[in-house]
Design brief:
The protein has helices at residues 4-18, 40-46, 74-86, 92-100, 142-154, 177-184, 212-223; strands spanning 65-71, 106-110, 113-118, 127-130, 163-165, 188-190, 200-208, 228-236. It has 240 residues and is of the alpha/beta class. The strands form three sheets. Strands 1-8-7-4 form a four-stranded parallel sheet, with helices on both faces. Strands 2-3 form a two-stranded antiparallel sheet.
Length: 240
C-alpha cells in the first residue's frame, strides 16, 4: 500500500512534468536546474552585494530595517512587469525562494520537487504580512504571492487580513518623493490590532522606490502595537 507521503511525492513529480518550472526572468523551462544559465550573468550584476538598505537612500520610518535582493533594472524589471502586467504570478514562487535565501535558507531541486535543506536556526519573525492591494477584492498580487512563499520557507504564518488600505490613493508612478509620501500618508489601517500587538513582523513588497508605502504600512502596524517590523522586497530602485 502506498503511503500518503508517497502519493504526495508522486503528485508533485507529475505536476513538475505537466507544469515545468520556468525562469521568472526569461520564461525558459528550468526543469531540475536551480538557476537559469541564460539569466545568471545579468542577475549576478544586478544582485545587491549588500541586501540591507540604507536609510539615507529610502524612507524607512517605523522600520527596524529593510533589505532588497536586486536592482530594479534589466531582466529583473522585465520580470516584475511580466508578472504584474500579464498575470503570470506563478513565477513569484521562484522569486520568493530566492528571497528566503537571504534569511539563511538553502534549497535543492530533486526530480522536480523543492527540498529545503536548511531553515533559519532561530525564528526571527512571528508572521509575514504583504503590502495590501489598492482594492480589497484583489488579494492575488505579486506582493501576496511573494509573502506566501517566504512564509512557507521561514515556517511562520502569512497574514493577509490584518493590514489593509483604508482610503484610495493615486498611483505613485510619476510623483516626486514628497508627493509619494503625501499620497500614502495614513492610507493604511489594521484589523484586529490585538493580533499584531507585541509581534515581530516581516513586511513584504515587490519593489521599493522611496519607501513611502512600506514606511506608512509600518506606521499602521506600529500604531497597532507591533514590536518591530522589518521590510523585504524583491527589487530596489530610486527616483534619481
Amino acid at each position: 500500500m502506498i503511503s500518503s507521503a508517497g502519493i504526495q511525492q508522486c503528485s508533485q513529480k507529475m505536476a513538475a512534468l505537466l507544469f515545468p518550472r520556468r525562469c521568472p526572468f526569461c520564461g525558459r523551462v528550468l526543469g531540475y536546474v536551480a538557476v537559469c544559465s541564460r539569466c545568471a550573468p545579468e542577475l549576478n550584476r544586478l544582485r545587491r552585494a549588500v541586501p540591507r538598505l540604507s536609510p539615507g537612500d529610502h524612507c524607512l520610518d517605523n522600520l527596524v530595517g529593510a533589505a532588497s535582493l536586486y536592482q530594479y533594472k534589466g531582466c529583473v524589471r522585465n520580470a516584475v512587469l511580466r508578472m504584474k502586467g500579464r498575470g503570470n504570478l506563478w513565477y513569484a514562487h521562484e522569486i520568493g525562494i530566492q528571497i528566503a535565501c537571504m534569511f539563511s535558507c538553502t534549497f535543492r531541486w530533486e526530480h522536480g520537487i523543492l527540498i529545503q535543506e536548511t531553515a533559519p536556526a532561530v525564528q526571527m519573525y512571528d508572521m509575514v504580512i504583504p503590502v495590501p492591494p489598492s482594492r480589497p477584492d484583489r488579494w492575488d498580487t505579486l506582493s501576496a504571492r511573494l509573502a506566501v512563499t517566504l512564509a512557507l520557507c521561514l515556517g511562520v504564518p502569512v497574514e493577509r487580513g490584518y493590514l489593509y488600505k483604508q482610503r484610495m490613493t493615486e498611483k505613485q508612478a510619476g510623483k516626486s518623493a514628497a508627493e509619494r509620501m503625501k499620497n500614502v500618508k495614513d492610507a493604511y489601517g489594521v484589523h484586529q490590532p490585538q493580533q499584531i500587538e507585541g509581534k515581530r513582523i516581516l513586511l513584504v513588497d515587490d519593489v521599493i522606490t522611496t519607501g513611502a508605502t512600506l514606511s506608512n504600512c509600518a506606521k499602521a502596524l506600529c500604531k497597532a502595537g507591533a514590536l518591530e517590523i522589518f521590510a523585504v522586497t524583491f527589487a530596489q530602485t530610486s527616483l534619481v
